[in-house]
Amino acid sequence: MQVLATAGHAAHGKSSLVRALTGMEPKEPGPALTGTAWTRLPSGRRVAFVDVPGDPRSVPAVLAGLAPAPAVLLAVAADEGWMPQSREHLEAAVALGVRSGVLAITRADVADPGIALRQARERLAGTPLAAAEAVAVSTVTGTGTAELAAALDRLTGRLPVPDPDAPVRLWVDHAFTAGRQSVVSGTLGAGTVRVDDELVLMPAGTRVRVRTIGCAGEPRDEVGGVSRVVLTLRDAGPVAPGMALVAPGRWSPTTSVDVRTRFGEASGRLARRMTLHIGAAAVRVGLRPLGPDTARLTLNARLALHVGDTGVLRDPDRRAIAGVSVLDVRPPTLVRRGAGAARARELASWPDRPDGALVLRRHGVLRRAELTGMGCAVPPDAVPLNGDWVADPAHWETLRDRLAAETARHAAERPGAPGLPLETVRLRLGLPARELVAALARPPLRIEGGDQLAGGQPEPEADGLQ
Do 33 and 10 meet the contact criterion of CB atoms below 8 Å apart? Predict the structure, then answer.
């Protein structure tokens, strides 16, 4: 299955298109602003549509519907042309990283679709949707409906197939609870959910178990992304839209991130209090500009994130948005004078999706599970330490040099004194765990009594020619 979100100005025929294509009324379990319907395309591929509202007051629901969808069906009415919500929905889709779509010129029985098509092409120029296939449609007469289905079939055939083994994160865009049972729905972007799977409900951190799975109106034992899914959970407690169900240990719960703005105004001109829309979540954040296109966000609620995640910063008062890419889910504290400027210089060279080598270089030493939780693979040249830990090679050699200097200084200042306490060494070297001191030590250094580093200055290694 693939999932497309509708987009476009209010009353431009988004829901009518979905009904014409699927023969269904878009709906969700329980009360909802958006609706879902599904069908099979001419090739036999299955597609689900998330039908978002066009009302300007419903922008959060629009963003929640667009965020997990890999493509959009953009509707522009032939008799009205490009309108304010056409622009707002396009900006939101681009900011969220949507790169594919189909343009439908609706109400082609009421007015010449050519004028609206030219307007739309002008507005789409310079965006990732500039080359979107366009079809003129009338849901009243049926003209163009078959051509639209064919265009959507071609589009879904080009969309990437997500990894079925990817870590699960299901953003909940609809939820209701009846007694001890909660029913949630959302777009599963990647990974596989199975009946009886244990997931973590964020931001609460509660472990919940999947009791049943529904997809396209049918019960399933398992379902993979991309799909619209309905899950029932038992004893999950309060569940609300904007929460997320995630695979345990595969994501980083965080309330502080460094981001790059990818669309919209420079970070310095953005409001200091904004709303971050990521997935179906809408979280108030404090913004601290770092560089021209980087900022530190402090979140009012924990989100389960990976580096490279994309979202939208929105200022409801100014109706301004800026797309963001998450660069670091465990950023350093910025307390010293000049720390913000130094951090901006560091982030300036980072790509929008940092890899494991860059993240490990930044942190120096991490547990393998921490790298995985950040969405990164362990780099092949990482130094393995005691099984759980890995280190950046250059950082590890620097630590060896610093350890040699510390032990030599201790021996010179206190001849005949006991060795250095491991905790003292750990603090001086900035290591996250005492066991790493033992991994760092090499002969003649040795651990004595389980908590002291003794042996004096280590001997230099042979150069391989001796």
Answer: no
Residues contacting residue 390 through CB under 8 Å, at least 6 positions apart: 360, 365, 366, 367, 368, 371, 378, 382, 383, 384
pLDDT at 456: 57
C-beta separation of 187 from 294 below 8 A:
no
> Do 144 and 198 fall into the same domain?
no
Residue 60 confidence (pLDDT): 80
**Local confidence band at 56 (pLDDT 50, 70, 90 cut-offs):** low
CB-CB contact of 88 with 74 (8 Å): no
pLDDT-above-90 percentage for the chain: 64
Q: At what angle do helices 84-95 and 59-66 cross, to 10 degrees?
A: 40
- The total domain count for the chain is 4
Tell me if 147 is assigned to some domain.
yes
Provide the token pair at 95.
Answer: 């900011």
**Looking at the structure, do residues 341 and 258 belong to the same domain, yes or no?**
yes
Token output for 326: 């998450």
State the residue range of the domain holding 406: 393-454
Give the orientation angle of helix 393-413 with respect to helix 422-429, to 10 degrees: 130
Edge-to-edge order in the sheet of strand 2-8: 35-40, 46-51, 2-8, 71-77, 100-106, 133-136
Is 110 among the domain residues? yes
| Average pLDDT of the chain, as a whole number | 89
pLDDT tens figures, 236-262: 888 999 999 999 999 999 999 999 987
Q: Are residues 261 and 348 in the same domain?
A: yes
Report field, pTM of the whole predicted structure over 0.70: yes
* Amino acid present at 392: D
Alpha helices in 222-374 (DSSP H): 339-348, 356-363, 368-373
